[in-house]
Amino acid sequence: MIWEAETEKKFKSLISKIPVFHRHITESVVRAEAEKNACGRNCGQVEESDVIGAFFSDVPSPFYSMMVRILDQTGFDYKKYGFPKKQ
């Protein structure tokens, strides 16, 4: 699937900041979920909201604070998409 250029650039930067022993699985799982999110919107392109939604749906709670910190560091504005969701 096609990715919006800036979103893919930020995603690759984010992945490079994840500890090496989690990097591959994180990239695989989040990439697949982001593409699924784009399909769910009937869109042929992955956008920032798809990636953010994927991270917030698939990251285990022990890694949550690290994820938020890295999202901030790489310029993903998760708050504008309503994340984190209130429970």
Explain how this protein is built.
- The chain has helices spanning 5-17, 20-40, 48-58, 64-73, and strands at residues 2-3, 45-46.
- Helix 2 packs across helix 3 (48-58).
- With 87 residues, it is mainly alpha-helical.
- Strands 1-2 form a two-stranded parallel ribbon.
- The termini are far apart.
- The model has no long low-confidence stretch (mean pLDDT 94).
- It has one domain (2-81).
Order of strands in the sheet with most strands: 1-2
Q: Looking at the structure, what is the overall shape?
A: globular
Helical percent range?
Answer: 55-70%
The profile of the biggest β sheet is:
2 strands, parallel
Count of β-strands = 2
Distance between the termini: 32 Å
Radius of gyration: 12 Å
Mean pLDDT metric? 94
Question: Low-confidence parts, pLDDT < 50 over ≥5 residues?
Answer: none
Oligomer: single chain
Number of domains: 1
Structural class category: mainly alpha
Proportion of residues in extended strands: under 5%
Please write the string of helix (H) and strand (E) elements.
Answer: EHHEHH
How many helices? The count is 4
Short description:
The protein is mostly helical and 87 residues long. The protein has helices at residues 5-17, 20-40, 48-58, 64-73; strands at residues 2-3, 45-46. Helices cover 63% and strands 5% of the residues.
